[in-house]
Write a structure and sequence with these properties.
single chain; alpha+beta; Alpha-Beta Plaits; 5 helices
């Protein structure tokens, strides 16, 4: 059988349940490292990971041997266990159902990596909801009957 050659760049985002700002800066880096390990263990290539207290963004080079939904399910399940068994959050932690996924071309890799790595600076200027809805519009994704996220307005300045 011939080898598989691919170039698939995937940008993912998912949030804690109710999009609550539960990802604390004290354990954000260990969480990102843990998720990175899950990605690498499943033979995908992490290009960038970043986020805010109310969401995580991940940019990967995806291997076609695993579906995106399987990968996201494993990242969420494994990191949920990591957070709760490690007692990282003082609250019961769960990820919200669903996620967003966008594909990018090779020419966009550097700009998407910079965008994800600079989430905190970026969100000082534009809230997540506004940014997310613009991304969906840019990619031609219509909300319609789909529920993107459970939107709760969160003041991240507190």
């Amino acid at each position: 059988m011939a080898d598989v050659f691919s170039q698939v760049y995937i940008h993912l985002a998912f949030a804690p349940k109710h999009r609550e700002a539960l990802i604390h800066s004290a354990w954000e880096e260990p969480l990102h490292k843990y998720i990175t390990g899950v990605i690498q263990q499943r033979d995908h290539k992490l290009l960038a990971i970043g986020g805010m207290p109310d969401h995580v963004r991940i940019f990967i080079g995806q291997k076609p041997s695993e579906s995106i939904s399987e990968l996201v399910k494993e990242m969420k399940n494994a990191s949920n266990v990591f957070i709760n068994t490690g007692k990282l959050s003082r609250f019961k932690f769960d990820w919200q159902n669903g996620y967003s996924v966008f594909s990018h071309s090779r020419s966009q890799v550097n700009s998407v990596c910079k965008y994800i790595l600079n989430q905190k600076e970026h969100h000082r200027k534009k809230p997540f909801k506004k940014e997310f809805l613009k991304l969906c519009d840019d990619f031609g994704i219509e909300g319609g009957r789909k529920e993107f996220f459970t939107w709760f307005e969160v003041d991240l300045e507190k």
